[in-house]
Design brief:
Elements lengths: L1 H7 L7 H15 L18 H10 L10 H22 L5
Helix pairs in contact: 2-4
Length: 95
């Protein structure tokens, strides 16, 4: 649930994983898919799951972490290509 809230209010463009998730969601929406996130209870008492829940809960605020230039290159190029592909796909006399 905290990840869903994080994606809903995400504004920091320096997180490559989140950018990839948002691009994937956008691509699915363009293809007509509806997305629904739901909370599945039952993590209590299971080894590792509570730790993951705590970590996910700590990500609800802005993440202040430096990112290497090399870590940003691939997601930015994918994003630029995605935008270019959208424009290309909308053209009629380009094939």
């Amino acid at each position: 649930m905290s990840v869903s809230e994080f994606l809903k209010f995400f504004t920091d463009s320096s997180q490559p994983t989140v950018i990839e998730i948002l691009l994937l969601l956008r691509k699915l929406e363009r293809k007509g898919f509806d997305r629904n996130f739901c909370l599945i209870p039952g993590h209590g008492g299971k080894h590792g799951n509570e730790l993951v829940d705590n970590i996910a809960g700590s990500l609800t605020g802005p993440i202040q972490q430096l990112v290497c230039y090399q870590d940003l290159t691939a997601p930015v190029l994918r994003y630029i290509h995605c935008i270019w592909q959208e424009i290309w796909d909308q053209q009629v006399i380009n094939k």
